[in-house]
Amino acid sequence: MDTSKYSRQILFSPIGVGGQRKLLESKAVILGCGALGTAQANALVRAGVGNVRIVDRDFVEESNLQRQMLFDEADAKANLPKAVAAERKLRQINSAASVEGIVADADGSNIEEFIEGFHVVLDATDNFETRYLLNDAAVKLGIPWIYGAVVASYAATMTILPGRTACLACVFPKSPQGMHETCDTAGVIGPAVSWGAAIQCTEAFKILLGRQTELHGSLLAYDLWSNRFQQIKAVRDLECRVCGAREFAYLERGAASHVSMCGRNSVQIHQTESRALDLAALKARLERFGPVLANDFLLKCSLDLYELTVFPDGRVIVKGTQDPAVARGLYARYIGT
Predict the structure, then answer these.
(1) Is residue 33 among the annotated active site residues?
(2) What single-letter DSSP state applies at residue 104?
(3) Residues 6+ apart with CB under 8 A from 109
(4) What CATH number labels 4-252?
(5) What tens digit of pLDDT does each residue of 155-203 get?
(6) What is this structure's pTM?
(7) Are 275 and 329 in contact, with CB atoms under 8 Å apart?
(8) Inter-CA distances, 148 with 40, 107, 178, 241, Å
């Protein structure tokens, strides 16, 4: 093992040479590749985690660059999927690491496949539906995972060891109700992202190094602007529907036909079963209706009031509406059923 790249990290006594060897042999999944996900991936790959898989459904936009550290203006101009752009950057950062970017939307039909066989999962998603889904899959498969959320100047995180600690459903039995601020409505500052990702990655290192007794064991939350810090002991509920009764309701729902996307005035549409699209042929067809930009990974068509971003598996992000019925109508009209 060439230790020169990690020499300063090896000097940290809880890691050392033996710990570094463990990291090089470790496998981590990052679910989502926005603000938290890029910070997590950057930290894990630079630290020498040997295998890092990144799963994300979205593409790079200019508004991402303020806080999503692996992307640049060229990525946004090229409409690169975030998982693809992240993989390319990370391979340049550490060529010894195995980095796999997967352009996909995690749902009940595929999430087990994405995380099975890995040692830890880091949450970088943007909604509770997907987090509950991840909680179901991780508890079912017995894989540790680390919840994370960030908005405005606030970040929160909690570590879940299935069967040993509280799971997400123990702490939040029901999805939070009512209107909630998102990064697209309340904004977000980079330092809040960095704080949340730093805690998540440190917890991941402890898990990968077999130092679980040093995990913080709490729901941690910090508002960096108002200087408010909370640490709430996460207590396992033995009657929890997930880790107690082992009822995996979110996992059993399978693939959703549509989902609104985190305050972005967009709806994602995909069929229950993936379908292979010929993007070149679709480009020629859609050019009759508006300007079309395309690359090897996606196609983007601008209509009068809407914008369609089409992926090869038939998934489409419809920008310009939050109404699933409108989005499905546009899908049927321009993509076909």
Answers:
(1) no
(2) -
(3) 254, 255, 272
(4) 3.40.50.720
(5) 999 999 999 999 999 999 987 654 456 676 678 999 999 999 999 999 9
(6) 0.87
(7) no
(8) 11, 18, 20, 21
